UniProtKB/TrEMBL annotation:
Superkingdom, natural source: Bacteria
Pfam families for the chain: NAD_binding_8
Classification via InterPro entries: FAD/NAD-bd_sf
Gene3D superfamilies: FAD/NAD(P)-binding domain
This protein's name: FAD-dependent oxidoreductase
Length: 473
């Protein structure tokens, strides 16, 4: 029987492991941390019983993932919950951009911009499941559905700032801008619309879901599926050198590209080793989890019903803060994302004490403490919030990269989404998963289709590895 080793038990490592085990391979996963899951772990931290997502929380890309839905993970305990409202972007004048799963309902709330929102998202979201067959693969490929892809793809090449100008109301501009900012890029650059449009389109089709019982439920379901297929997982095994790797027909790395260059060293073709070592990382995230007594006292009522709240002021302010963090400067008022997963999944709370998830965009490797800046941004749109804080826990960019070595300098996307890395992946190639040495592949979020708990990077990489193994036989 063929054997496979997967290094790293994040969602992509587990997805690769499941795909390889389902193809009949004997699979071993090696994970550095004491617990599996990488960016999909949850746990108690502040108040006993209060459940926090350690990293990923909101899953518009995972809930409709062709890979995850194809595994029937409900059998292994994964179930999705949807908040009443997907996302709210409040503004200082008391108005807000309000994102519903329904394009129509969102458009209805955007007044003069309703027709434009509809024009942008109606078609692509209706055909999202078809579109996903193309956009969840390496970008450069022969499209399965060229017309659907072209219709979606044309606006993605625009800078987010150009697309934002299509809208006439500040609410629509900010709503779009806050989602575009998930790319952690200066929004005046080409292709910075792409990630925002992808998230918004997926969300209009499948909603901004959370996993019941925390994002750890995605991990637990994948691990249970793997166990059913005969795969094994060893935790507490940090792979730093190729000598630690057991012999295997296929070795998959759910790791940052620079880590793979370090581990494999001169066992890689030198041009590939050099390319991986040159891989670039983006700004960092500074995370604060709060225990909050009662609901957050949001000024805008829709924010009290939303799974996600984006705090960054109007479009111009978001664009300025994203530009600053990319230039290595910490803005006084950073872009902050707030998650209220407990609204959709109330079992995460303890009585009237609720877990609030937040992180701020900060410069790469930022060494300061952004806690006060995050609290101030929440206070700005929810006066009185500070008095409701029961306790909190922080994770700086350095602590983020200790928690998970893939988040270099606190970069939670596992790599800057600049034009080159967005289009090609970890290096300039049409084969982004290949490492140029037989049987070895990269499968982390640094590869297409990129970050998220959808497992598509791992599944795609494993399919490529299996095809190559069959061809070698
Ligand atoms: C704070 C935060 C918030 C986020 N929010 C969201 C969100 O709301 N929605 C969303 O879709 N995505 C979100 N993400 C991103 C998402 O979590 C990642 O894109 C996803 O987890 C990437 O999966 P992965 O399998 O590629 O890598 P990871 O999940 O990073 O897993 C990599 C695994 O490899 C292990 N590892 C690293 N080095 C070694 C080594 N040398 N040897 C052995 N094991 C090793 C790590 O411990 C880890 O378990 C967030 C991430 C963070 C950190």
């Amino acid at each position: 029987m063929n054997t496979a080793v997967v290094v790293g038990a994040g969602p992509n490592g587990l997805a690769a492991a499941v795909t390889l085990a389902a193809a009949g391979m004997t699979v071993t996963v090696l994970e550095a941390a004491p617990t599996i899951g990488g960016g999909t772990r949850s746990g108690e931290a502040i108040v006993p019983g209060l459940l926090h997502d350690d990293c990923s929380a909101i899953h518009p890309m995972a809930v409709g993932s062709a890979f995850l839905t194809g595994l029937d993970l409900e059998r292994y305990g994964l179930s999705w919950r949807w908040p009443e409202i997907d996302c709210v972007h409040p503004l200082d004048d008391g108005s807000a951009g309000v994102l519903h799963r329904s394009v129509e309902q969102t458009a209805a709330g955007l007044g003069r911009d309703g027709a434009r929102w509809r024009a942008l998202f109606d078609g692509p979201s209706a055909s999202y499941d078809t579109l996903a067959q193309d956009i969840t693969r390496p970008l450069l490929h022969i499209p399965a559905h060229p017309l659907t892809l072209a219709r979606f793809g044309v606006p993605t090449v625009l800078p987010a700032s150009a697309l934002a100008r299509v809208f006439r109301t500040e609410a629509a501009r900010a709503l779009f801008g806050g989602v575009a900012a998930h790319a952690f890029r200066p929004l005046h650059l080409p292709l910075t619309s792409a990630i925002g449009l992808g998230i918004l389109t997926a969300g209009h089709r499948h909603g901004w879901a959370v996993a019941a019982g925390g994002s750890q439920a995605i991990t637990a379901a994948l691990a249970a599926k793997l166990a059913d297929l005969g795969g094994t997982i060893e935790t507490g095994v940090r792979v730093d050198s190729a000598d630690q790797l057991p012999p295997a027909d296929i070795t998959m790395f759910d790791l940052a590209p620079t880590a793979v260059a370090d581990i494999l060293g001169d066992r890689l073709p030198s041009r590939i080793s050099r390319a991986l070592a040159r891989f670039r990382y983006g700004p960092g995230a500074f995370k604060v989890d709060f225990a909050v007594d009662g609901p957050v006292p949001w000024t805008h009522p829709a924010a009290a019903r939303a799974g996600t709240v984006h705090l960054g002021g109007d479009y111009a302010e978001i664009a300025a803060t994203e530009r600053a963090v990319n230039a290595g400067q910490m803005p006084q008022r950073p872009f902050v994302l707030v998650g209220q997963q407990y609204l959709a999944d109330p079992a995460r709370s303890v009585g009237d004490v609720h877990p609030l998830w937040s992180y701020a965009h900060v410069p790469h490797g930022y060494t300061g403490d952004a806690t006060e800046a995050i609290i101030a941004q929440i206070e700005r749109f929810a006066p009185g919030f500070r008095d409701r804080i029961v306790g909190y826990r922080t994770r700086s960019t350095t602590e983020m990269s200790c928690y998970n070595a893939n988040y270099v300098g606190g970069d939670i996307l596992t790599g800057a989404k600049d034009i080159r890395q967005l289009v090609f992946g970890p290096r300039v190639t049409l084969r982004p998963y290949a490492l140029g040495t037989p049987g070895r592949y990269l499968c982390s979020a640094a590869t297409p289709p990129g970050p998220g708990a959808h497992g598509m990077c791992g599944a795609n990489a494993a399919e490529v590895a299996l095809a190559a193994l069959r061809a070698r036989r």
